[in-house]
């Protein structure tokens, strides 16, 4: 199934309050969300039939929509229930979950204040965001040409579709150059994040990670920081200059899709996936698979 185009798959998608056959989940080509990026989404994972931090993701989805000046016409509880229903209807227990909300097609033009707000939820199997062999060795990252913009120019705390435009461009360019992904700097020249994941570095047993003042403070990012602190590992959130990368020994990225993935190199900087990275990979697995961890114990 993984190689099939997404519009040709079988299954069910929840759309505007009802489950519809997968291939019938369509929108009009003149939808405002397609032309003007009035669209927000979430990326979530289900482990063993339970969507990890589902409510936090639903809360962020609603907040993202508010930042784009529209209101999703469903409560957080209704969104949580719809995600669970969609997962069950597709007979999946380990899956990726994608809620997406957008302005509809009633009006075209920059202003579309009275367009209907739609919500859809898709779920599918997505074992690993990165190639398993690359995960084992550590990802190779390029340096992105585009930078994360000044928060005075974008709603940087929203998980908005339009903010991923430079991410797609940067990841495509990196892949054509033989890299798995690209690390982005921000508008000031500080290290920001990767195209779809937050980034962490290790030096002398301490974790350093960029301060999320102009990019999304990921739910997985916050989870990993909590896990590190729970394991007695100091975490410093600060501005990091690219030239500091030579002094770090480990590097890893985090995200719903990426989970916790080691990095082996960024441009000319080299890292060795080891102690803290592996410890947090195991801790994150235990956090997302509590039943499996309890059975193993």
TrEMBL record:
Top-rank taxon, per record: Bacteria
Keywords noted in UniProt: Amino-acid biosynthesis, Aminotransferase, Branched-chain amino acid biosynthesis, Pyridoxal phosphate, Transferase
Enzyme class name: transferase
Cofactor(s) of this protein: pyridoxal 5'-phosphate
Pfam families per record: Aminotran_4
GO biological process, one term: amino acid biosynthetic process
Keyword Secreted: no
Single GO molecular function: branched-chain-amino-acid transaminase activity
Catalyses which reaction(s): L-valine + 2-oxoglutarate = 3-methyl-2-oxobutanoate + L-glutamate; L-isoleucine + 2-oxoglutarate = (S)-3-methyl-2-oxopentanoate + L-glutamate; L-leucine + 2-oxoglutarate = 4-methyl-2-oxopentanoate + L-glutamate
Pathway(s) the chain acts in: Amino-acid biosynthesis; L-isoleucine biosynthesis; L-isoleucine from 2-oxobutanoate: step 4/4; Amino-acid biosynthesis; L-valine biosynthesis; L-valine from pyruvate: step 4/4; Amino-acid biosynthesis; L-leucine biosynthesis; L-leucine from 3-methyl-2-oxobutanoate: step 4/4
The keyword Protein biosynthesis belongs to this UniProt entry's keyword annotation: no
Documented EC number(s): 2.6.1.42
PANTHER family named among the record's database cross-references: AMINO-ACID AMINOTRANSFERASE (PTHR42743), AMINODEOXYCHORISMATE LYASE (PTHR42743:SF11)
Family, similarity comment: Belongs to the class-IV pyridoxal-phosphate-dependent aminotransferase family.
NCBIfam families reported for this sequence: ilvE_I, PRK06606.1, PRK07544.1
Primary role: Acts on leucine, isoleucine and valine.
Protein name: Branched-chain-amino-acid aminotransferase
């Amino acid at each position: 199934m993984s190689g099939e185009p997404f519009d040709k798959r079988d299954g069910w998608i929840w759309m505007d309050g009802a489950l519809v056959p997968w291939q019938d989940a369509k929108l009009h080509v003149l939808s405002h969300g397609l032309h003007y990026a009035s669209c927000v989404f979430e990326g979530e994972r289900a482990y063993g039939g339970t969507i990890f931090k589902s409510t936090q993701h639903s809360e962020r989805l609603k907040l993202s929509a508010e930042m784009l000046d529209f209101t999703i016409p469903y409560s957080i509880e209704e969104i949580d229930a719809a995600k669970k229903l969609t997962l069950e209807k597709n007979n999946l227990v380990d899956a990726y979950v994608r809620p997406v909300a957008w302005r509809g097609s009633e009006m075209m033009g920059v202003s579309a204040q009275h367009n209907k707000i739609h919500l859809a939820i898709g779920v599918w199997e997505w074992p690993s965001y990165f190639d398993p062999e690359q995960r084992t060795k550590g990802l190779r990252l390029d340096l992105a040409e585009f930078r994360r913009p000044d928060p005075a120019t974008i709603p940087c705390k929203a998980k908005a579709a339009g903010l991923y435009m430079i991410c797609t461009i940067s990841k495509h360019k990196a892949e054509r150059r033989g890299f798995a992904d690209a690390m982005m700097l921000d508008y000031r020249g500080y290290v920001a994040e990767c195209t779809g994941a937050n980034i962490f570095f290790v030096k002398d047993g301490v974790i350093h990670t960029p301060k999320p003042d102009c990019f999304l403070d990921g739910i997985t990012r916050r989870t990993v920081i909590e896990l590190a602190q729970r394991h007695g590992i100091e975490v410093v959130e600060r501005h990091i200059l690219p030239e500091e990368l030579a002094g770090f020994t480990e590097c890893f990225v985090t995200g719903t899709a990426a989970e916790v993935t080691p990095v082996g190199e960024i441009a000319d900087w080299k890292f060795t996936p080891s102690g803290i990275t592996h410890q947090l990979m195991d801790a994150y697995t235990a956090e997302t698979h509590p039943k499996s961890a309890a059975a193993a114990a």
